[in-house]
Amino acid sequence: MTVVGQLNPSPRLLLGPGPSDAHPRVLSAMSTPLLGHLDPQFITIMNETQELLRQAYLTKNPLTFPVSATGMAGMEACLVNLIEPGDKVVVCYAGYFSSRMIDVAGRTGAEVTVLERPWGTVFDLQQIRETLQRVRPKVLGIVHAETSTGTLQPMEELGNLCHEFDCLLLVDAVTSLGCTELKVDEWGIDAIYSCSQKGLSCPPGLSPVSFSDRATQVIKARKSKVQSWYLDLTSVMQYWGGERTYHHTAPITMVYAIREGLRLVLEEGLEARWKRHWNNHKALKAGLTAMGLPYTAQEGHQLPQLNAVRIPEGVDDLTVRKQMLAQFGIEIGGGLGDFKGKVWRIGMMGHNSWPKNVLLVLSALEHCLRTAGVLVAPGCGVAAAEAVYAQLA
């Protein structure tokens, strides 16, 4: 018989693309005793969680709830419910996670048109307009915060453009919710999905989604069965809607977690939270730039919560990341797809986005770069970051 010891992982500071560290209040909430998933007290908690989520998304959509699975299940829930075989779909491709949207949309039997831009760049409205005019799709899918490239896609006018062509706007907000400006109703977003483990400072396991009335009517008017039984919102909405009809056993503890995570977001205030992420990004960017690490995303469209920078010539990606983890207990992310082995991704999300972590990761990364033979002026990154904080004070 194999004897397994007590669980005791080493302490880590999770500054990669996710998960980020959970807030202590979230972890405390998860120790709350279990309730049944149809218990009247838990139904009250479900109602509260939905309302908190509406406030975080800045929406009044009734169909707003956390899918009982991770962010990619949120993506799949949106696509398989909105799309039927033969429907036309346009996906804006400029990074790793938009490629997943293409894959899932194709599996529904949709006709998928890919609108492509180089990784690290954004789409302009005219480019999208021409594609919508030509294809006349049912759905346009786009990533708001592309985690693989650190790019922030402008969204303010996109909903109006889609609706001009009677097209539903589907948005990947996995890395934006709780970190950067996100206004579902004002921006005319019809379907959106995110995750629990980044800006909301919870463990992985839930994917908050929200559907406009237009999108909800499309789901209700389907002519074919939804491809996935588990993610079929025509059934799931009966559990998360007014009837609370049994569909699946909800992850009770994770609902406790996201409820507390959302309470933290709203206690801080959305505007204050967005500003905090931008301020720490400015300081981190100054430090990384001083150390000779250029950003992959085009200027003016860089994510504050996910900083993707190019690895210096001759430096091995994995060696540095292993050293960061072994010597400092800090996790940073490597590149994906086209950026594999070429990019580091440093997350400053939710509970982790604080000056102490900015200064710590800069100091640790400088040490690792110097160990790898890179000529870096001692203390230059921390000094550059401190200068930014002095200006912001």
Automatic annotation (TrEMBL):
Question: What CDD domains does the entry give?
Answer: AGAT_like
Q: Please give the PROSITE patterns that the UniProt record associates with this protein.
A: AA_TRANSFER_CLASS_5
Key word Transferase present in the record? yes
Q: Which UniProt keywords apply?
A: Aminotransferase, Pyridoxal phosphate, Transferase
Q: Where does substrate bind?
A: R345
Fetch the InterPro entries from UniProt: Aminotrans_V_dom, Aminotrans_V_PyrdxlP_BS, PyrdxlP-dep_Trfase, PyrdxlP-dep_Trfase_major, PyrdxlP-dep_Trfase_small, SP_NH2Trfase/AEP_transaminase
- Record-given protein name: Aminotransferase class V domain-containing protein
| Organism the protein comes from | Tuwongella immobilis
